[in-house]
């Protein structure tokens, strides 16, 4: 099972380059069988650009989580604090193997009635072959 995350272009670039080894979330998916993240790069790109394996899911108070993840955050402390402002719980996906797609995919071509999720959306196994073709 995969989950699709909407991620801003600057963060996608940092994930694909290896500069960002944690993806932060205010909310996390309830299913624990999620092993792979499908990366939807938000506008102006608006495409599926790759995927990464989830090595681990960390959670905790934002200040404690920052101390554990800051070296791989790919963002400033100010940005992090703004993102988690007023929150008592924070989540970080530790990024495992990253697989950029050789060609970016228009999500409307592989998913009916696609609308970019605010947080995440589940993508079932039945869609996997569509994305496998996009690897390197």
UniProtKB/TrEMBL annotation:
This is Transcriptional regulator. It comes from the Bacteria.
